[in-house]
Amino acid sequence: MKRIFLIAIIVLALTACSPVKPDLSGEWKLVSYGDSSSPTPALPDVDTTIKFEDGQMSGNVGCNGFGGTYELGGDQITFSGIMSTLMYCEESMMQEQGVLGVFSDSVALQIQLNGDTLIITSADGSSVVNLALK
Predict the structure, then answer these.
(1) What is the pLDDT, as a whole number, of residue 52?
(2) Which of 27, 63, 66, 93 is deepest in the core (most CB within 10 A)?
(3) Of residues 122 and 83, which shows the higher confidence score?
(4) Under a CB-based contact definition with an 8 Å cutoff, are residues 132 and 31 in contact?
């Protein structure tokens, strides 16, 4: 009986220590982006959504659509293969560059998922993308 109890405790301890992948599935709306100490609010009345599903991401952060893949590992996310349309839109150009600049790095990025808010911070900590679940 003591062995079964001990085995159960070990199994519970190992389960509690195993990393849980955050669930990013769904459509997210851009709240702010840019400098991590003072992010720029997303442009009002501009379609700024990003969808994550089964390792694929797609969206629009101004006037250009984009897509690519992502991989989760613990509290890290790695983006790759990001492609975007190339229309020129003066009013949203800075927003698009700020967001896609973080996503275009194919290095691991820190993420923080808190309820319906997702904060993606660049590897060097200088840039963030703040999203809210739609």
Answers:
(1) 95
(2) 66
(3) 83
(4) yes
Q: Is the pLDDT of residue 56 over 50?
A: yes
Question: Would you mind telling me the total number of residues written for the chain in this entry?
Answer: 134
57: number of CA atoms within 13 Å, CB side?
24
Total H helices, total E strands in the chain = 2, 9
When pLDDT is averaged across residues 42-64 and rounded to a whole number, the result is: 93
d(CA 118, CA 43): 18
Taking the C-alpha atoms of 15, 12, 117 and 76 in order, what is their torsion angle to the nearest 10 degrees? -20
The answer to whether 50 touches 80, Cβ cutoff 8 Å, is: no
pTM of the model: 0.79
- First-to-final CA distance of the chain: 50
Structural domains of the chain ordered from first start: 21-133 (2.40.128.270)
Provide the β-strand partners of residue 58. Answer: 51, 67
